[in-house]
Amino acid sequence: MSHEAISTLSSERFQKTSDKPSLVIVGSGMATGRLLDEIIQRSPNTYQITVIGDEPYGSYNRILLSSVLAKETHYKNIIQKTPQWYQDNNITFVPNMRVTRIDKETKVIYAMPTNIDELTADTKNTEYAYQHLVLAVGSRAARIPAKNQDLEGVFSFRNILDTEKIESYSKNKKTAVVVGGGLLGLEAAYGLALSGIKVTLVHRNKWLLNRQLDETSGNMLKKVMLEKNIDFALGEEIVQFENTLNASQQKIISGVILTNGQHLKADMAVIATGITPNAELGKDAGLSVNRAILVDDNMQTSDASISALGECCEHNNETFGLVDPIWAQCTSLATQLTSSTPHAFVNKPVATKLKVSGVQLFSAGVVESSKDTQTYTLLDEKSGVYRKLMIKGDIIVGIVLFGDTSSGMNYFDLMNNKTPIKQYLPELIFGHEYMESMMNDSESMQAA
Ligand SMILES: Cc1cc2nc3c(=O)[nH]c(=O)nc-3n(C[C@H](O)[C@H](O)[C@H](O)COP(=O)(O)OP(=O)(O)OC[C@H]3O[C@@H](n4cnc5c(N)ncnc54)[C@H](O)[C@@H]3O)c2cc1C
Q1: CA of 32 to the centre of ligand 1 (A)
Q2: Peptide linkage before 426 cis (omega within 30 of 0)
Q3: Considering the domain 3-140+276-339 in this protein, what is its CATH number?
Q4: How many Cβ atoms are within 10 Å of 352's Cβ, its own excluded?
Q5: CATH superfamily, domain at 361-443
Q6: What are the pLDDT digits (tens) for 74-115?
Q7: Which atom of ligand 1 lies closest to the CA of 27?
């Protein structure tokens, strides 16, 4: 529905029920769930809070959708905030409602039910007035430059509804293509392969997880995933999805054509090539936007009454796709909303793990060596263990571990705390136990 059409609709005003300042949050995803917890913990009565989300649920643990697809858990176990929770905390929760417009001059937002596709004479916007507005609208699955990707049987993997659709469509299917060899694509491929489907993962880079792993560890990962009934077309992209007609004469996917001309049979496909921040709502309202909605260190947008956080925001040229930095954003914003004290968000390095049973990998910081880094590697092909540390000056700047990640958090702490490590080289590469025994030795020598 076009914005012009929406703006001509009649409206009804949502009634405020208290004299407290009104804090309206758009999006009921992971960032909002955490922000609410942090606000309630600090000062539960400062605001009259309204949360408007376009999904049918309150905040849920989106991370665990991979485990839902792998049948390791069920949707009902990943819901973090039930309607009762909002009620108990005096928060007005409006599910199934999409915010379509922000008028920052009058401080009013306009929303309409998610399931309305066509305007009728009875269609109405609901208006919500705010004193402070938080945009936490996340992102959506990126589209790929391939023909026919809107065919029946081609899915994204972003929310509970997508996961339900994938699960239901995959029943009795024999072959699937997953597009994207990042964390999400690998987890989707693993989930489908577990239900007995022959999965081919198509990835445009020459090795998997190329943003987190180097070629050696990427190839080790491929070897492990091959044993999990997943095939690979690496260094390839999809040019086109092919179709056939089902019993109801509807066009459904039947395969894909790759850049090298190869045809792959596919009864279904999942596209997991990355995310696009939902920046349009902010952009249309006149907020400063680049790839996502621009925020400063205090999560404030270019309008002092509007904050943004999570995957829809951009801070110092960085956008976000993992929850660790988003939790830090929530702490920053909750502190300011409840105490007016600045609490700057600092974007710290994040460690990556893959949620595929039996695969141990850990990656943080830089992945490839450069001319100003020293690299220490250890490869034990027989036991499938690989370690690589990249050191700049005296400080760890990159960690890649495969097969044994037990030292991951130790290395990560050294990296984050910028601890000088030269004295522990080259033994540091053997793992944290070596380092700890060296530290103990030097302490006992000093004591003697
Ligand atoms: C399958 C999967 C596995 C993942 N695994 C990991 C992991 O292992 N580790 C990790 O750190 N991260 C992981 N992530 C990423 C993590 O889930 C996200 O970083 C996090 O959910 C972002 O939180 P958010 O609140 O910004 O966005 P979201 O959680 O996406 O919430 C945004 C909400 O806003 C709603 N919305 C959008 N527009 C509107 C509108 N106009 N009006 C009303 N509502 C709107 C959306 O529908 C959504 O409900 C994973 C993501 C997926 C999909």
Answers
A1: 10
A2: yes
A3: 3.50.50.60
A4: 19
A5: FAD/NAD-linked reductase, C-terminal dimerisation domain (3.30.390.30)
A6: 999 999 999 999 999 999 999 999 999 999 999 999 999 998
A7: 34
